[in-house]
Amino acid sequence: MAYVIETLVKALVIIALFSALAGFATYVERKILAFMQRRLGPMMVGPYGVLQLVADMIKLFTKEDVVPKNVVKPIFLIAPLIAAISAMTALAAVPLFPEFTLFGHTVRPILADVGVGVLFVMGVASVSMYAPLLAGMSSSNKWGLLASARAVVQLLSFEVVSGFALLAPIMIIGSLSLIDINNYQIGGVAEWIIWKQPLAFVLFVIAIFAETNRTPFDLLEHETEITAGYGTEYSGMRWGMFFIGEYANMFTASFLVSLIFLGGFNPMWFIPGALAIILKVCFLIFFFMWVRAAWPHIRPDQLMWLCWKVLMPLALLNILITGIVLL
Fold it and tell me: Are 152 and 132 in contact (CB under 8 A)?
């Protein structure tokens, strides 16, 4: 019973924490983009516009949930739920912090310590592909349908690249457990996987930009078009759930990069492990936003060319070289 209660508490904490962080990240991103582009960003609601987040939440929760006449209603209503649920479920196998003791009880900050954590996270995160697919297919809007097809092509393509990019580090470590991967780097900064697999790190980071729908690969819901891609016919909180899923996936990807390549939650010099992984994740989130401010969008054909003619051969070459070195 104690285990069940602890698991439920962890699940509720993860859902509440990362839902709140996803909302707060929208404010942070607007301020960072404004600073880099010499604007002010949100300034009117609260000090430095910090209450703009509350205003946006009130707007989303109170805005009318319009369901267009000719949509396939059950699928249309389920699609946003898939985006949010898959993003939160992927966090279940991610060890967020090192173990700590609370009131004499040892707490492990991971919801489900499965032995194939990398495979679980990648598999569950890939389910989010069905959110834009079903959203576009169930809409009565032809632009939404075209955008959903484009989204699936992008996500499927870069999932292959991200999977191949992680094969080389897994070959070195010999385990799919994120805890084992973290413990492999326990010797300090010099033991980080990024020094042994720099190409895999670069390939994986590029792939997660595409999989999390971030600039310059944000072709799933293209902000510069007149329509909003697969989400054209959504409004209110259903529209917001797509973006909760997007920002939650961004946090999941940042934790994955930190755990696999950047030493995880091991102590870093004089910095304790829990603070170290928070700093790494914050830097990666900032990096996501920095790239959005600095880089333009690319065309779909350029994206596919990059995936299949550049990233894929490099990933396979990296696996081949790693195998030869290990032998």
Answer: yes
Q: Is residue 294 a contact partner of residue 144, using CB atoms and an 8 Å limit?
A: no
DSSP track, 70-95: TS-HHHHHHHHHHHHHHHHHHGGG--
pLDDT attached to residue 113 = 82
The predicted-structure confidence for 188-229, as pLDDT tens digits, reads as follows: 899 999 999 999 999 999 999 998 888 888 776 665 666 677
- Residue among 204, 181, 255, 244 nearest 22 (CA): 244
Say whether 106 sits in a helix, a strand or coil: strand
How far is the C-alpha of 315 from the C-alpha of 320, rounded, in Å?
9
What beta strand segments (E) does the chain contain? Answer: 100-102, 105-107
Do 181 and 118 touch, CB atoms closer than 8 A? yes
Residue count (the chain): 327
pLDDT of residue 226: 60
Neighbours of 72 (CB within 10 A): 13
Q: How far is CA 252 from CA 2, 75, 225, in A?
A: 27, 26, 28
Q: How far apart are CA 37 and CA 294, in angstroms?
A: 9
- Both structure tokens of 62: 């109170």
**Residue 25: partners with Cβ closer than 8 Å, 6 or more residues away:** 247, 250, 251, 285
Specify the pTM: 0.92
Distances 35 to 3, 27, 32, 41 between C-alpha atoms, Å: 46, 12, 5, 8
Main-chain phi, psi angles of 124, to 5 degrees: -70, -40
Number of structural domains (the chain) is 1
Q: What is the pLDDT of residues 30-68, one digit of tens each?
A: 999 999 988 988 888 888 888 888 898 888 888 888 888
Which structural domain range is residue 226 located in? 2-326
